[in-house]
Amino acid sequence: MISYLWPRFLVERDLRRCIRCGVCTRQCAFEVHHLYEEEDWVYSDESACVGCLRCVTLCPTKALVVRPNPTQPPPNANWTTEYLQNIYKQAETGGVLLTGMGCDKGYPVYWDRMVLDASQVSNPSIDPLREPMELRTYLGAKPDSLEVERVEGRPVLHTKLAPQLELAVPIMFSAISYGAISYNACESLARAAAELGTFYNTGEGGLHRNLYRYGKNTICQVASGRFGVHADYLEVAAALEIKIGQGAKPGIGGHLPGEKVTGEISRTRMIPRGTDALSPAPHHDIYSIEDLAQLVYALKEATDWEKPVSVKIAAVHNSAAIASGIVRAGADIVVLDGIRGGTGAAPTMIRDNVGIPVELALAAVDDRLRREGIRNRASLVVAGGIRCSADVVKAIALGADAVYIGTAALVALGCHVCQRCYTGKCNWGIATQDPRLTRRLNPDVGARRLVNLVRAWSHEIMEMLGGMGINAIESLRGNRLKLRGVGLNQEELEILGIRHAGR
Amino acid sequence: MLREAVLRDEKDFSACSIFGMMSPSGKRVNGEPIIRAMANMRERSNGLGGGFAAYGIYPQCPDLYCFHVMFDDHVARKQTEEHLRRDFEVCDSGPIPTRPCDGVENPPLLWRYFLLPRSTDDCDIGEEDRVVRVVMEINVKVDGAFVFSSGKDMGVFKGVGFPEDIGRFFRLEEYEAYLWTGHGRFPTNTQGWWGGAHPFNILDWSVVHNGEISSYGINRRFLEMYGYSCTLHTDTEVVAYAVDLLLRRQGLGVEEMAAVFAPPLWSEIDRMEEGKRKLHAALRQVYGSLLLNGPFSVIISNRRQMIGLTDRIRLRPLVVGSGRDFDYISSEEAPMRLLDDTVSETWIPWGGEAVVFELKEEAVPELTVPIEVFRSEVPLAARGTGRAEG
Ligand code: SF4
Ligand code: SF4
């Protein structure tokens, strides 16, 4: 069958600059570039190009330009390139459309429709370079009140607090499994979390033995497939997370193709080498909220009640009611993952059409928990589409205790969001198990890049806090007066619990 | 009602003068000295709000709740009285005595009620919680009514005007109290509304406050979780409810309350010895949403205590001084010197350090101090109203 697809990108090579060094041919796992040494000629097969820009970045003479293909079907507001190409693909293969990373549709990004406040005159702004500025955050259940006794006139704390996670900055690295990404990427995240005084999340792929030493900064996930879940795994973690759903693919389980299940991964996940790792859509021991409560308490029992237990759900229409149930089921942390959250592999239709923007879910959940008087019983963490420090500040002002960053962290490691993670050919050495490719990501450099990113964001967060005249992050948390909407309708403003700019 | 206009803004911004004086032995003095003290700090207010709290003023009925209520009209009054009668026996009621006074315009109807709570079968909720609930209900539900004082043997007097004018309007020279606090307001963006003046009060607690609390948004949402509705949209109201929650309902001490409102830095907490560290860490973890962030100095009082506190990095002034009969907390030193020759020592507390003056255990607030113990022989008019005396 002839393929009717046409290349999405054009690869242009400036032949006056090209020195036929062959770097691009070696760098591209999609085999776009071909060097014919005898003919002193480099040729590009554009149809394979995914636009990851690896070749452009590494070409020593900057001879390459990759740009969207100007060749387009006849203009049509409905039948765009995307729909035509999807149909050709499916007509040719009969398969489900697959993709990677988060939803790339133009749904409103509410972070971009909210602006922040700053103090003027009646309330001095604070200069974080000269004055203390506190970002430390504790995640975990808080009691309604503290009991303090007087012993010989001195106050002594009587209440025993539930276990807490101490974060030096309210930013953690999202669940990304070993298998979806390379060992080197996992190690980069683990080391960065340890250096930053925060946490990374194993995702559903278990934890490689070499990374146990970063356990104090590790949140171990328990997902429906239970891959790699055993006593040591629970024991080594700082906290446990039950994954119910994921923003990129609410309602469906994970799928790691057998090609990615190498020796180390099969050992870590405790599954045979080369088999597809399919996690079921639901947990088959959780068909209702009371079943979830059982798993929460089972995990707490198994770890002597020493670790907070988190429950992660995808942001969907009735997140607020679900979150309330989760808190009542004993979770110490609730994670909301929005529609723009990333993934290693998901059916395109699900990724792009199921779930809701996390901003709305966050506002609704925070409101609901407050109305029920149980907001303090669990911390709220949001994930899915946090792109910069201002997004973090806005999320916290809306009501989050902390955020998870996934895509942003991978971008720091080199990811260019080409959305081809499911192919296992990530040229940046991240979403791949091919040793030729994983070598490209050096954990020393990876950890440094992540630490730099989060440090930079922390400085920016401090500047924004100082500008508002606030010197501790807890005074921003849920402080929606610090937000104003721009270009939002009444209903949106109401859901977000903010006023329009100018009011 | 004017309040509607105020409600559009979530909160007001103000810079103010605050003053408090208390006799630890329970000696009482009339409102003249504190009026004079407030007049001395006139530059710190702009005539858009002034007020006073006085403790020990109703010794004839110290066990009755005394509600001071402002009404837009008699319809609001009738509705409110219906509400009151449901939960209380009204022992006495009538307009609060006032006199016409230059600089005080368009006062609302001002009434006071002496109330005895009816006994009830509802044992889930204590008497004080019931009183709080009634206050909240009236303030939220009755259009044109606002309860601005609800304690026992104490009262708040406040309105739109310079504090000294408000003091004369309410004839404060006719009341005698062992604890007075006063407030002059300089709001930058709200029209004056009588209810929006300080002090703020709930039960016996009253708060006068200078500053702007940047954490207002979350302080308020946290308190709402505990059933407080912040109807006034000012940060001072939030302080009053936070005090009520922490000290009365949750039984924390003043020290812990100070550590919640203006906590030590984490770096300081990390260096504390084990027990203290655990306590302070827990206070921040559990009550972080009540941290009052931003510049403030505040005087919090109840029937036995007068507490002064500034924010953790002390962005607003607070001076403390002690004289022979009275202890003082003030925005400035001048007024306490003006009032009292016997003030020997004054000091400035650290940011976040609570200064607490208490009524002595044995003190029975009955003695009345003759006004002569204070220095001011010169009549107020002759002093001008502007500057501190040099
Ligand atoms: S990497 Fe650049 S210089 Fe080298 S062959 Fe490719 S295009 Fe030419
Ligand atoms: S991780 Fe790799 S494959 Fe996935 S989007 Fe990023 S660059 Fe592309």
Query: What are the distinct ligands in this entry?
Result: iron/sulfur cluster
Q: Which CATH architecture of chain B?
A: 4-Layer Sandwich
CATH superfamily of the largest domain in chain A: Aldolase class I
State mean pLDDT of chain A (0 to 100 scale): 95
Structural category of chain B is alpha+beta
Q: What's the structural domain tally of chain A?
A: 2
What CATH calls the topology of the largest domain in chain A is: TIM Barrel
Helix content of chain A: 25-40%
User: Which second-level CATH architecture of the largest domain in chain A applies?
Assistant: Alpha-Beta Barrel
Write the layout of secondary structure elements.
The complex is a heterodimer of chains A (503) and B (390).
Chain A: E1 9-13, H1 23-27, E2 33-36, E3 41-44, H2 54-58, E4 64-68, H3 81-93, E5 98-99, E6 114-116, E7 137-139, E8 148-151, E9 154-157, E10 165-167, E11 171-175, H4 183-196, E12 200-201, E13 218-222, H5 231-236, E14 239-243, E15 255-256, H6 263-269, E16 277-278, H7 289-302, E17 309-314, H8 319-328, E18 333-337, E19 346-347, H9 348-353, H10 358-371, E20 379-383, H11 389-398, E21 402-405, H12 407-412, H13 435-438, H14 443-467, E22 483-485, H15 490-496, E23 499-500
Parallel strand pairs in A: 11-12, 11-21, 12-13, 13-14, 14-17, 17-18, 18-20, 20-21, 22-23
Antiparallel strand pairs in A: 1-4, 2-3, 5-19, 6-22, 7-10, 8-9, 15-16
Helix pairs in contact in A: 4-14, 8-10, 11-14
Chain B: H1 2-7, E1 14-22, E2 29-30, H2 32-40, E3 50-55, E4 65-71, H3 74-87, E5 88-95, E6 109-117, H4 127-141, E7 145-149, E8 154-159, H5 163-169, E9 176-177, E10 179-187, E11 200-202, E12 205-211, H6 216-225, H7 235-249, H8 254-261, H9 266-270, H10 274-287, E13 296-301, E14 305-310, E15 319-322, E16 327-330, H11 334-339, E17 345-347, E18 355-358, H12 380-383
The structure holds iron/sulfur cluster (2 copies).
